[in-house]
Specification:
alpha/beta, Rossmann fold, three-stranded parallel sheet, 5 strands
Length: 158
């Protein structure tokens, strides 16, 4: 069974993330979307809310399992018996950071492979931080998010 982990804070999950997930479903038998607790990033949404949003956005994907985590990714890969990490690359600015993280993970666990997927061109500019910035000023975000995620954010903000 080909199993991969797609880690991130998903604060919130965007159409760009969903695009990566859809394409990863063609490559793997199971994808574990691992939502990082990531208190150092001071997420806008709680871990529980982010897990709920990812679950709602991926409800129609039979290959997806959503979990939360708060440990090293290499330790999580041991727990899940998954040695493939999926990461998204939108722009050159992402590349340096992602390459560093991939090498750091490989230095901790040689069997761990990281694959990088680019979102479709229409989603290349979409990031959770862009969504949060627009949301801060009550701007229009529904075109950047899965419909279920947008509805949940509206409810969370009431």
């Amino acid at each position: 069974m080909r199993k991969a982990i797609y880690p991130g804070t998903f604060d919130p999950i965007t159409n760009g993330h969903l695009d990566i997930i859809k394409r990863a479903c063609h490559m793997f038998d199971e994808i574990i979307v691992a939502v990082a607790d990531s208190e150092t990033k001071k997420p806008m949404f709680s871990l529980e809310q982010r897990i709920e949003m990812v679950q709602a956005a991926t409800l129609d994907f039979s290959k997806i399992k959503v979990i939360g985590f708060d440990n090293l990714l290499v330790n999580l890969s041991d727990e899940l018996e998954a040695n493939i990490i999926i990461r998204g690359l939108r722009a050159v600015s992402d590349f340096e950071y992602e390459l560093q993280m991939g090498y750091a993970n490989a230095s901790l666990k040689k069997e761990l492979e990281t694959i990088y997927l680019m979102p479709s061109l229409e989603h290349a500019f979409v990031s959770s931080s862009v969504v949060r910035s627009i949301l801060h000023f009550d701007g229009k975000i529904e075109h950047l998010l899965p419909e279920a995620t947008y509805k949940m954010i509206v409810e969370y903000r009431k």
